[in-house]
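Weekly modeling sync, notes
Attendees: S.R. (lead), two postdocs, one rotation student

Agenda item 3: backlog of single-chain predictions. S.R. asked that every request posted to the team notebook include the full sequence so nobody has to chase files. The rotation student volunteered to paste the first one in as an example of the format we agreed on. Action items at the bottom.

Example entry:
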Amino acid sequence: MTNTSIFYRTLSALMLLGPLCFGQYRFQIEDASKKYNTEVTIEECLANQCRHKADVVLFNKNGQKIQTLTSEDLVLSFKEDFKPSKVNIMPLTSGMTYDSPVVFGDFNFDGTEDVALRNGNGGNYGSGSYDVYVFNSTRNQFVLSKELTELATGYQGMFDVDYKRKRLITFARSGASLHYTYEYQVIPNKGIELVYEKIGDLSEDTPKVTIREKIKNKWVVKKSSKY
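Predicted structure, as returned to the notebook:
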């Protein structure tokens, strides 16, 4: 038998057994949402981290598949030593990772749950960045929100949600001394609007704090030393 024949027979066998030989890592998340369960399939896992392209499948609590979303660079950074396996699907809880790979919440305050997927480290100083999908009741599926994705990418990690005041809050810093806080208001059918910013300068013994707040469509500026 020629070497060429052996090569093609071996290649054919690998193509047939590929999923068995080179299976991906699968994780199940059940504590991130009251409405949905999530299954994450990711390509690469090392000692204490999994990352790269991943499929995120959303199920309702009855096990019915709702939708599949994809992250080009989903990151799982484990807090403790963790040895992922390709054999079984592994349960993943919120306390196991430093940043949640999948975040649920009502991000646009319309009464329905939305979802954000970790997508790399594109945030401020290499912090986590997220793709944000809002639930479209007309299409009955999650659709990517460009504005909310930019908000969850340009600052330090996923934004906080203040449900009482209906604000989205983000943070950033410049060096060790300058700290920024921004608050955005969601305007239905229009988008988001910056309505508050706080800049804290800690470079001297007495902090310098500048607060700008939009009140009745006018910016009001306050300065103080209380951080």
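Discussion: group reviewed the output briefly. Residues 4-22 have pLDDT under 50 and may be disordered.
Action items: rotation student to repeat for the remaining queue; S.R. to check formatting next week.
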